[in-house]
Amino acid sequence: MANLNHALSRYDYLLKQCLDNRALNDPKPLPQVFGYLLGENPVTGNLSKKHIVDTFDELVESMREDEIENGPADAGMTFFGQFVDHDITLDARSAIGTRTDPRTIRNIRTPNLDLDCVYGDGPDASPHLYSGDHEGFMLLGRKDSHHGWDDNPYDLARNCKGRALIGDPRNDENIIVSQVQGAFIALHNILMSHVMEKDDTGSDIHHCAAMGVRSEVWDKAMPPSLMSFEQVRRFIRLHYQYVVLHDFLPSFVDPKVIKSVLEHDPFHNKGPIMPAEFSVAAYRFGHATVQPKYCLRKGEDPIHLFQMHKGFGPRGSQHDIEFAQFFDVAGSRAQKALPVGTKMADTLFQLPDNVVKGKLDWDGFEISETRAKKLALRNLLRDRTSIHLPSGQQMARTMHGITELAPPKILKDNHIDKTPLWFYCLQEAEERGNGRLTGVGGSIVASVIIRLLKLDPESVLNVPGFEPWHGFGDKCTLANMMAFVESHRDSVTNKEDLYCG
């Protein structure tokens, strides 16, 4: 770390030099706290806590659905959305029933689409994620029997207790997100192999990573031993950001809204970097897109959602997925997510004990465990009892060209005239968005993601002339990236040395 500024990684130092002595997010790093777009909207009026909870529970029960229909997005996009969320947010103080000002909550993740959930802080500061024998390579899965685990080379790297060695432990909480995480680790090692071999692909990576960066910057800021690593990391970050913008967002957000937000931020850059309206409400749309069962591999019987939720421990090979079952690769007819809307799979109305256990308390009012296990009710209660988000109607009134929706009949009949924001976003998608977020919900989600990219001077939005690498196929999609990983992950240089165990 010689000659580097204190507290700057080599990558940050490179960008500092690249940007004419400006820090990564000029004039200072993006603030790692949450905040409001509009401000606090506390519970008011004379309705009792029991009346409010009973009404919300009735509304939630109207969402329960046994008959499942397919939406426009691939099933895997729901889990990739979770992966993206883990890249940009982590609220370690989330609670229901206790008033919490989001402006006091630290966002433990860097609010950039920078894959810190994969790379941690890089080889210098997060050495436990990297090979000690091969510079710049990341640890792969495990070939291990002396801990009593079956060998599974496609699992994540793990310590002796079975905990995953990854940048964000939450990415091991279910077997699909775990494998998305593993795919990005494998992609890094695949591309590192090409760079080390100095073949045509390695040359492509070098030229892509150099886009927007003066050649002398790499030479001055980067020791030769880390040069290849940083080039691969930047190459993958740019393509990841491209996929988030051009593949993930259109899967769940009305493309007309995305186009409008790209041209004009509806919040005029006055909002917080990470609004509570995004993290607590609009971005939780993914809960409504979860299927009750998934088929992991072609021809096999589907397994229950919560059989897939047994994370934070070694994954057996019987739970390895075929990516084509979750992402549509060349017409593979992947499973689909549910449409964004006010219907949710019955599965999510009885969360298992390892996810939720025990009653809730709202300032002295007890909420039964049966109700606490309903995911939709938890979303409404987190809003109204803890974060006090503006309602959907309040948000709509502040946004140009958006006509507000009336509260659903269940709320009106129970004298509640403002719709909690999470439900409002789903209602818009169902009534106006053809299964995609639109209006308020679409604008919030698109604005936050696009603003993160605009504020990062090294993002794909700020690299003039960026074109995705042809190696991912005719179109750079998440499906094609996952297919590339699946086709090449067994051809990594020195692969046997990268396994744990």
Plain-language structure description:
- The protein has 501 residues and is mainly α.
- It has a single domain (45-498), classed as Myeloperoxidase, subunit C (Orthogonal Bundle).
- 39% of the residues lie in helices and 4% in strands.
- It is built from 18 helices and eight strands.
- It has helices at residues 10-18, 49-61, 75-88, 116-119, 122-125, 175-197, 200-209, 215-221, 224-252, 255-263, 276-281, 369-372, 375-387, 392-397, 409-413, 421-432, 439-455, 478-488, and strands at 34-35, 64-65, 274-275, 293-294, 303-304, 344-345, 360-362, 365-367.
- A hairpin with a 2-residue loop joins β7 and β8 (365-367).
- α6 (175-197) packs across α18 (478-488) and α7 crosses α9.
- The protein is globular and about 70 Å long.
- The two termini are 30 Å apart.
CATH architectural grouping: Orthogonal Bundle
**Fraction in beta strands:** under 5%
Instruction: Tell me the number of structural domains.
Output: 1
> What is the string of SSEs from the N terminus onward?
HEHEHHHHHHHHEHEEEEEHHHHHHH
Shape: globular
Helix content, binned percent: 25-40%
Question: Main beta sheet, described?
Answer: 2 strands, parallel
Strand order of the largest sheet: 1-3
Name given to the CATH homologous superfamily: Haem peroxidase domain superfamily, animal type
Comma- or semicolon-separated keywords:
two-stranded parallel ribbon, 501 residues, mainly alpha
Summarize the structure.
This protein has 501 residues and is mainly α.
Question: Which helices and strands occur, and which strands form pairs?
Answer:
Blueprint: H1 10-18, E1 34-35, H2 49-61, E2 64-65, H3 75-88, H4 116-119, H5 122-125, H6 175-197, H7 200-209, H8 215-221, H9 224-252, H10 255-263, E3 274-275, H11 276-281, E4 293-294, E5 303-304, E6 344-345, E7 360-362, E8 365-367, H12 369-372, H13 375-387, H14 392-397, H15 409-413, H16 421-432, H17 439-455, H18 478-488
Parallel strand pairs: 1-3, 2-6
Antiparallel strand pairs: 4-5, 7-8
Helix pairs in contact: 1-8, 2-13, 3-6, 6-7, 6-9, 6-18, 7-9, 9-17, 10-17, 16-17
